[in-house]
Amino acid sequence: MTPRTPQFLGPDGVVGSHLREALSTGDGALTIFLLFVFVGFGAFLGGLTRWALSMVLKGTPGTWAANLIGSAVLGFSAAMPAMWPAFLGAGFGGAVSTLSTMAKEMGQMVERKEWWPLLRYTTVTCVAGIIAAWYGLRVGLQLIPAF
After folding, report:
1. Where are the domains of the chain?
2. Is position 42 annotated in a ligand binding site?
3. Is there a binding annotation on residue 94?
4. Stated pTM of the model
């Protein structure tokens, strides 16, 4: 895997790391505005996908699938240039994955004292999520030419 560098470097680092400085210029303000638009649109599409997935897969399997999809998309987005990580990773991947539902399901397992299913669900979700993110990054690095 080839290491990549951010496209938008300023004198003090990546654009956005110094919000006040970025907003003081027209280009910086536009970049910040577009960042919010891309994240919002990605979150809208991710929310629709999560809803559709919840109609097909009910309960724990749906939550597990949503979290794996979110992890893979987040890994894939890390290989993309410019605003794509904001759109795909933070927006879409963040909206399709669901830590709150997973926490609710784990809490229900604790209430019912289902310790082994709880341990299995938590471990498999975490390990599979890391593998999915790694695989998504790998695919992204192979498909997206270096920017």
Report:
1. 12-143
2. no
3. yes
4. 0.76
